[in-house]
Amino acid sequence: MAPNTQTQDFLEEGYGLSRGYAPSLRLNFQHQLLRDLLGYSISPDIVVKGNLPPNPKIADVGTGTGQWLVDVSYEISSAQLDGFDISKEQFPSTAWLSPQISFSELDITQSLPSALEGKYDLVHVQLFLCVVRKDNLLDIMKNLYKMLNQPVEPGGFLQWVEYDPTSFRVVSPEPSLKQSANDKHIQIIRGPQGIATTWPSELPVHFMHVCFEGVVAKDYPLPPQLYMPFMLCHLCAAEEVSFTAMNNNRSEAEGPSFRKLLAEVYKECQTGVTMTESPMVVIGRKG
């Protein structure tokens, strides 16, 4: 069962995930998994080489629950940390956070407010797979570029952490184990044409197209012990999509049918069959 045309249109034109306490928990868990995988909040290519000023201004675009900013606040106590998202529904209360952290609503796909132009030494983006559409990637990247400062050449950095659907594949500890549900799940992720979304794997080219310099890209293949934790995050996100973007009017509708498939995927996962992938990090400096 693949998503129908209406669902595909929704996923391409709108945000297919949910907001609330359960999705926020998924985001926080997802963030910690990425932190464990990468081993850093800010790439060593940026911080170890002393490329940030003593009191850096740092923005997190698509901040969600703001956990990346919280981690950075422990690491750089002198930084100004501004989180932006199209919705404030998942912003944490700043009452319990460091005063260096702030949150504001911002639609990065629209015209950038002039007050944000040339302001930041580092802009961070994480997991925009459900945000980027076929027609808005260039606009997003131009806005991110504009946010970076350039007192002297070169300017500020963009760090983009992303899932790469072209790397998704099913793995099994034993060839004899059933994996048909996992195979079907990946087919659905790839869409009705069976072709995985390719823009994440092409991000380095897009960086250079927008005039970023010194572009560095690195893949981070999952170690086996992280197969299942990442898979659980994907299953939670897929379930959110089933309620948000799919028809749920009757028991045989697309949403309930998709959730039955997810239950079968989870059963296979309990035998060791699961999906693996190689998230990627791309860094560039404003030229």
Please supply descriptive tags for the structure shown above.
287 residues; alpha/beta; 7-stranded mixed sheet; two-stranded antiparallel sheet; 9 strands; disordered N terminus
Hey, roughly how much beta strand do the residues contain? 15-25%
Uncertain segments are 1-13
Total number of strands: 9
* Mean pLDDT over the full residue set: 91
Q: Tell me the series of helices and strands, N- to C-terminal.
A: HHHEHEEEHEEHHEHHEE
| Alpha-carbon Rg, integer | 19 Å
How far from one another are the termini? 46 Å
Spatial order of strands in the largest sheet: 3-2-1-4-5-9-7
Main beta sheet strand tally, sense and closure? 7 strands, mixed
In short:
The chain is an alpha/beta fold and 287 residues long. The protein has helices spanning 5-13, 21-38, 44-47, 67-75, 137-147, 180-190, 203-209, 227-244, 254-269, and strands spanning 57-61, 80-85, 101-105, 122-126, 157-162, 169-171, 212-219, 274-276, 280-286.
